[in-house]
Q: What sequence folds into this?
C-alpha cells in the first residue's frame, strides 16, 4: 500500500495496525516513495559456542569408537 506523508500522519495508528498484520506501507512525497513501514520480525537469539562450558561434562566414553554392532546399525540406517 502506498500513502502520502499527509495521509500517513493522519492515519498512523491504522497504518501501524496494517503493518502489524503483515502489510507493507510505502510513504511517498507526492509520487516519490521516501519511506517504508514494515513489521519488526523478532529474531531468535544467536547461539554462542561455549556457553555451557563448565556446566556440563562430556564423559570420556563419548570419544571412544562405537562397538562394531552399533556402528553397523548406524551405517545401515536408511538403506
A:
Amino acid at each position: 500500500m502506498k500513502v502520502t506523508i499527509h495521509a500517513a500522519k493522519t492515519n498512523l495508528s491504522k497504518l501501524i495496525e496494517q503493518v502489524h498484520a503483515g502489510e507493507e506501507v510505502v510513504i511517498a512525497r507526492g509520487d516519490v516513495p521516501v519511506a517504508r513501514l514494515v513489521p519488526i520480525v523478532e529474531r531468535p537469539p544467536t547461539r554462542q559456542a561455549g556457553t555451557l562450558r563448565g556446566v556440563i561434562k562430556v564423559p570420556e566414553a563419548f570419544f571412544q569408537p562405537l562397538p562394531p554392532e552399533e556402528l553397523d546399525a548406524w551405517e545401515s540406517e536408511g538403506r
Observations:
- The helical segments are 5-10, 12-20, 68-76.
- Residues 12-20 form the longest helix (9 residues).
